[in-house]
Design goal:
Radius of gyration: 18 Å
Number of strands: 7
CATH superfamily: NAD(P)-binding Rossmann-like Domain
CATH class: Alpha Beta
Helix content: 40-55%
Number of helices: 8
CATH architecture: 3-Layer(aba) Sandwich
Length: 273
């Protein structure tokens, strides 16, 4: 264990997969961790596991649908009631919109469009707004930081693979997240608030179950993500998040960190069939 986040309060949205891995890493690095998830059982179970596994862990949690304004505000208020400030935010919560009708835009339903953007963009915007307001109102640390915000995008925002991932609303939402974070970074740098994004490649989580069991996608991941020899581990993303939340990245803002096993620099066209 290191102490890169000692005496920091980190808010993490989501409670499984990448979010759970990040919560564990932040706690191991000395942070107090507050978990917000739509699924109360998952959030509570993760919080209890962290409290049991990490020495002197300070852990809190709340259940909220982060696409609903009042619930998001209440969750951030609960974090402040528990810990008094928020030094870092890793906004992970999101998901596939396939079940709502996301797909190629010529087949996309408007309900699929709205629900996918609600799940992946509106939720990120509401969390970012509430956290930015909090950070602007709190005193800076000794290092001059009022906080670090990380929004989660995807390699698919800028590096599409239409043969395998023809979900245009999802890609649009993830692309908008990069633009949102860049605009925020420019606006809040003078206030000592850093804003960055992480773009994961194919990662072994519950969201990727369908992809992981598809032979064509599994073969593609093996070729396209050679550094991971297939799907990434959630810990790979969590390590990147800890870096961006820590003072090691004190001069880094407005950047998109691709944690993708080589996806964006590897030439490996999808092969179907």
């Amino acid at each position: 264990m290191m102490d890169r986040l000692r005496d920091r309060v980190c808010l993490i949205t989501g409670s499984t997969g990448i979010a759970a891995a990040a919560a564990e890493r932040c706690a191991a690095e000395g942070a107090a961790v507050f978990i917000v998830s739509r699924t109360a059982d998952h959030a509570q179970a993760l919080a209890e596991r962290l409290a049991a596994e990490t020495d002197d862990a300070q852990v809190g949690w709340a259940a909220a649908d982060l696409a609903i304004e009042d619930e998001t505000e209440a969750a951030i208020a609960a974090a402040l009631d528990r810990f008094g400030r928020i030094d870092g935010c890793f906004s992970v919560a999101g998901g596939s919109g396939r079940r709502f009708g996301d797909g190629p835009i010529h087949e996309l339903t408007m309900d699929g469009w709205d629900r996918t953007l609600e799940l992946n963009l509106r939720s990120q915007a509401l969390v970012a707004r509430a956290v930015a307001r909090t950070m602007l109102g709190q005193s800076p640390t000794a290092a001059g930081s009022r906080g670090s915000i990380i929004l989660v995008t995807s390699v698919l925002a800028l590096h599409p693979v239409p043969e395998l991932f023809a979900t245009h609303a999802y890609a649009a939402a993830k692309g908008a997240i990069v633009s949102l974070a860049t605009s925020m970074a420019a606006a809040y740098a003078p206030s000592g608030i850093r804003v960055n994004t992480i773009a994961p490649g194919l990662t072994g989580t519950s969201m990727s179950t369908r992809a992981a069991t598809d032979p064509a996608t599994a073969a593609f991941a093996l070729r396209k993500q050679p550094l991971a020899a297939g799907f990434l581990d959630a810990d790979d993303i969590a390590h990147g998040a800890v870096y961006l939340l820590s003072d090691e990245a004190r001069a880094v803002t407005g950047q998109c960190l691709a944690v993708d096993g080589g996806w964006t620099v590897t030439s490996a066209p999808a092969v179907i069939g």
